[in-house]
Design a protein that fits this description.
Blueprint: H1 2-37, H2 40-153
Helix pairs in contact: 1-2
């Protein structure tokens, strides 16, 4: 919108400049021709100058109207953008809080499962010790029975 407005102002400035130059050239030509035309050329040049001034005035009026409209539209868009920014910031805060909660829950779960792993490893070690101890007992019993059988066979 701003670029369009700047282009319009640049064209308007060029149009004004051309109108001023043409008016100046016409006025010079009218003054030079006044002795030969009996002053009619001065009247024509004044009329031409007034027409150009009217065009310039109309152009300025349009330019001012467009500038006012552009400023109002820009202000309205900035107001809406500020609201959107605030709303987006609120969404980001809510998401941030949600992510903090998730991280907190995950860290509690991680701690719980690490503790469970340690307890399971302790249970496995105890079971291995019991197994080793039972194996020794069985070995002794089997050896005793073998000895008894061996003696009885002899």
């Amino acid at each position: 919108m701003q670029i369009l407005h700047n282009c319009y102002l640049a064209r308007l400035s060029t149009t004004k400049s051309i109108a001023k130059h043409v008016t100046g050239i016409g006025l010079i030509a009218a003054v030079l021709a006044a002795p030969f035309t009996g002053g009619v050329s001065l009247i024509v040049s004044v009329t031409f100058a007034v027409e150009n001034l009217t065009i310039i005035t109309a152009t300025n009026t349009v330019c001012n109207a467009v500038a006012r409209w552009s400023a109002a539209a820009s202000s309205n868009l900035n107001y809406k953008l500020q609201g959107v920014r605030e709303e987006f910031s609120q969404y980001l805060r809510v998401m941030h809080n949600g992510l903090d909660n998730i991280i907190n829950i995950i860290s509690h779960c991680e701690f719980y499962w690490e503790r469970q792993i340690v307890e399971i490893e302790d249970i496995i070690i105890k079971l291995e010790q019991i197994d080793t101890s039972m194996t020794r007992c069985w070995k002794k019993d089997i050896n005793k029975e073998n000895n008894i059988l061996y003696r009885s066979v002899k």
